[in-house]
Specification:
alpha+beta, 36% helix, Transferase(Phosphotransferase), domain 1, Phosphorylase Kinase, domain 1, 3 domains, 3-stranded antiparallel beta sheet, 548 residues, single chain, globular
Amino acid sequence: MSLVVDLPGVSVRVGVGDLERVGAGGEGSVYLLRHHLGTFAIKRYHQPTQGRLEKLKATIAARPANAVFGEGNDAIVQMAWPLGLVKENGAPVGFVMPYVDTKKAMELDYFISPVLANDVRHLERPNLAVRLQIAQNLCSVINSLHEAGHHFIDFKPQNIKVYPRSLHVCLIDCDSFSVSYNGRRFPASAYSPQFINPIALVNDQPPSGLGENQDNWAIAVALFMLFNFDLHPYDGRASSSVTVTTVDDFVRMGLYAYGSNPHPLVAPKPASVHGLWPTELRALFDRAFTDPQRAPAMLEWVQYFRGVLQNKLISRCDAMPNAVDHLRFSGHGCMQCAFERRQRRRVTAPQKVKRKSTEPPVAAQANSVAISSSPSPSYNIPLPTQKKMSDGAKTVWGLLIFFLLVWLFNDTPERRIQATAPPPHTANPSPIAAPQAPERPIQTTPPLPHTANSSSQAFYFYNLLLKKPTGLSTSLTTEETRWCAFQDYRISYLKEMVRRELFETQIQEFNNLCVNKDFSLDVLEAIKVKELSDPGLQQALQRRADLE
């Protein structure tokens, strides 16, 4: 069996058996193609529907001019944009795109999360100058996408790659973008929890109805997390008059705790360093998170970050002037010092019993919310009632705790992250060189625990109660169907919340067992909605959070 691949300026025929499979997902499988013109990736759809192929052809024709920066061996892929069709027996079955080497480009998460940065031994912990350069480059590329008339929509850090040496960024999964071509809009079909514009949440808007405002708000969330050590802007401590279960509930209710005028019903997390940011930066975030319709556009962010770098508005830390990762905004305290002090307090402080946790366990869909009379946020909010815990839910909770104890005492997750930096190449180099630091020994101390792990594990154990498919037969039981129905949800949820350090094997197993199942999408969606709204699951997650 062979495929015809439309590369730039030439079509080549390749045997399927000669291709190296490098990944798989709900939509299709990805293969590596090495050619004298370069290295490419082929995405072959499992079910190449007419609508998908029509959008794909428009996407290929509407490729932005700066999708690749530079030429030849120095070229850097800034958007893994589809280049041409892939055909089998004359019929399109997928597309070819530039290959983004995962050994040379790392997910944005590794520059956001201190935990992940510790996992990559060769990677120096990102300092303020690095974060500013990444932020500028990210907003610059998204601005180019907007100028071409396209929108990202399904934004999340996992869809952004960063080249560690040059700090350029690359957008992936470009075939899922909202694309404009010849006056017609080919919309996106998905968006990710915690990065959904609150207006869309409140009005129950589908991804197909969203545009540039969705991108502006989602990127503001990512920038907040980048400068606040992985803390989400709506991850706060709700007052006793408010009960919420998810970050998306916080978003829907407008409970933003880090503004210049804090919301009265939510307090900042103690680990936040937002008080050490310049007034201008805080004002940009305030606009995004108090009035989502006025979230700063990409060009405004670019101008701000460029101004900070070019005007050298960052300084060395007074306490640790030779530490490469201790840089600060001029006139403000060192964020790295503050972060490390708080982490040390968390490790050394005696454990206290909490009566009730106000930290929301994160889930993929919003669930029950109960609120007493309180000031209204700036956008309209539907408030469903809270459900009580059933006897069946108590049983589920007991099983969750049992599995959790087994997991915690027996699991030793392997770190599989390997990465090397590409040759130096910088389009917008930072004018501020980070201070030189003596070579550090390889870090061997274990990373601090990720705050989202417990909730994610609870959800994982809940699904262990389901039945795995044992083969590739097309006839499945209800439990097996439910297992496969969680495939796409689990991949995105676990990647975001557990950062993949525990669940790579499970995700790959899902791909192998469930990818070829012939399910109705309506059936899968109905199963997911039912499972995610189960009050027993939500109560179990809340009880687990109370124990933390």
